[in-house]
Specification:
Blueprint lengths: L1 H34 L19 H22 L3 H10 L15 H10 L3 H9 L2 H8 L24 H9 L14
Helix pairs in contact: 3-5, 3-6
């Protein structure tokens, strides 16, 4: 009787091991088949956790960006030469968003006319501030290949580029009558 009991237990253990073994073989085949598909791989049914930065990292990045923006604002309002350098160094699409409030209208017109000449913009952005100030003072050729701006006042009867740029930067907020409040 003991012999039969031992034989039954051995067969049960063998069956248990073979079922698990059979399951492992089927799982391995399944993973291999899925790995052949484009975008397949992993083969596991459980998704991998995403490795996202924590909220603290986002806060640090935000405060760093705000600090950079404050620094750029302070730097832009230090001198006329720095405003011109920032204008010249900006991308062509972003140039007219640069603050030129320290420049006279004639100087702004001169700079706007030069903005289509990328070579001139590059030479201005690479020039030292002292050379740019000499150029603004009326010294032709202080920056290679550039003439100094003329100190003429723009015509008051025809709105120039300077006034259009100022209007664009200083748009008035929308009137309250244009907004519809939902009840």
């Amino acid at each position: 009787m003991r012999f039969l009991m031992a034989l039954i237990m051995a067969m049960a253990n063998l069956a248990k091991g073979s079922v698990v073994g059979l399951w492992n073989v089927a799982d391995k085949c399944w993973q291999t088949a899925w790995s052949w598909l484009p975008g397949g791989g992993g083969g596991s049914a459980t998704p991998r956790p995403l490795d996202l930065p924590s909220k603290d990292v986002f806060e640090i990045d935000r405060s760093l960006e705000e600090g950079h923006q404050r620094s750029a604002d302070i730097l832009a309002n230090t001198s006329q030469a720095m405003q011109i350098k920032l204008f010249a160094a900006a991308k062509p699409d972003d140039r007219f968003m640069t603050d030129l409030s320290l420049l006279e209208p004639g100087q702004q017109e001169w700079l706007a006319a030069l903005s289509t000449n990328e070579r001139a913009m590059r030479s201005i952005s690479e020039a030292p501030e002292s050379k740019i100030l000499m150029l603004l003072g009326g010294h032709d050729g202080a920056v290679d290949g550039l003439d100094a701006p003329k100190n003429e006042k723009p015509k008051a009867s025809i709105p120039g580029l300077v006034t259009r740029m100022s209007d664009f930067r200083n748009r008035l907020p929308a009137r309250e009558s244009d907004h519809v409040l939902a009840a």
